[in-house]
Amino acid sequence: MSKARVPWKAVLGGSVGNMVEWYDWFVYSSFAVYFAASFFPDGNDTAKLLNTAAIFAVGFFMRPLGGWLLGRYADRKGRKAALTLTVTLMSASALLIAIAPTYESVGYFGALVLVVARLLQGLSVGGEYAASATYLTEATPRGRRGFASSFQYVSMTAGQLVGLGLQIILQNTMTKEALSSYGWRIPFVVGALAAAVVFYLRRSLLETEAYDEEERETSRGRGTIAELLAHKKEALLVIALTMGGTVAYYTYTTYLTKYLSNTAGLAKETATLVSFSALFIFMCLQPLAGGLSDRIGRRPLLITFGIGSMVGTVPLMTALGGVQGFGGGLALSLIGLIIVTGYTSINAVVKAELFPTHVRALGVALPYAIANALFGGTAEYVALWFKDSGIESGFFWYVSGCAAVSLIVYLTMRETRDAALSRAERSTAESVPTRV
């Protein structure tokens, strides 16, 4: 393994935006039960939640558009510029939700503000993943890229944990009436302020050497769909390798709490504690797995995930459906998340290593956003559909099937660990024998 130093400032600046992004994403869905009544007229409470959920979905389906626009922007204007823009959109969306007027004050205009905020948030999330993945990969020396890029999922998970922690604190310090009246605005104010801090941090980042080289050499074709189509094999590869990973990730993270509560019958407080504890340990595992990939390659981890998810999902989810306490739920959840770590810890770096510099951000962004919208974003709805149809185990087989498709890709794709991303790395590669 290379002894090159990890550029911690670049790692922090490149990944911390994900924490704010996923914090905002989490608090919208978790606090919707408190602010739904603020934006719609009196009536059916379920209808209000459905309206709020529909606005949430609008943000999700904006992600491919954000991936295209901001991926193109990152390839044409630079990684630093894209990272600064995404965090600006983050801060604006959180601030809009925090100050959105209620239905009682201005009618449906408040709901319109909410929609605009979610559109901005969807664009931001769609672009943040690619800008962050590309920057972390390019800014880190070869031999440490897997370790450094794993902090993308560290920060994403940290965002969910911070949001969950703040929710627990507010629920235990404020009445339900206070939360519904004004307390729900607090997490969005926190999100806007956090994004502003990240903005100033990112302004001091240096552009990557790989991008600077590309900018000096050519400006034609950078970040265009035409150029991406010239690498359609790699783009399709990103969709296929993401398919199994994103379904498994959402199954063992966002859907897990509902599954433990609705199917296993655990108290909501216990189910939440299981998820919080499992996610914390999962977060700590990411750098370990990312560093391992720098030693043994990316494919062994992906293949391990593919086999584990394909073979283990059905028995694992079946067992989780019958747990009776915190200990059993945590142990089984961790098994699932350890398997998923084989994908999450390195998926960003693998995708970035597949593409040349002039189309790298768009190549990561758009195919990933499409796969995530089709498979990750629908995972919970598919799960609930199977449950409502009386064949809940069908969802477990669905997850296994998605993993099987991705496993075929992992087995046939090339190893990317030693990909040279800059002229300096190419020179080094020519003078040092390739590792086996």
TrEMBL record:
Transmembrane domains' residue ranges: 21-40, 52-70, 82-100, 106-130, 151-170, 182-201, 235-252, 272-289, 301-323, 329-350, 362-383, 395-413
SUPFAM superfamilies: MFS general substrate transporter
The entry's keywords: Cell membrane, Membrane, Symport, Transmembrane, Transmembrane helix, Transport
Main localization category: membrane
Compartments reported by the entry: Cell membrane
A UniProt-annotated Pfam family: MFS_1
GO (cellular component) term, any one: plasma membrane
GO molecular function, one term: symporter activity
Domain of life: Bacteria
UniProt domain Major facilitator superfamily (MFS) profile: residue ranges: 10-418
Membrane topology category: Multi-pass membrane protein
Function: May be a proton symporter involved in the uptake of osmolytes such as proline and glycine betaine.
Family note: Belongs to the major facilitator superfamily. Metabolite:H+ Symporter (MHS) family (TC 2.A.1.6) family.
Name recorded for this polypeptide: Putative proline/betaine transporter
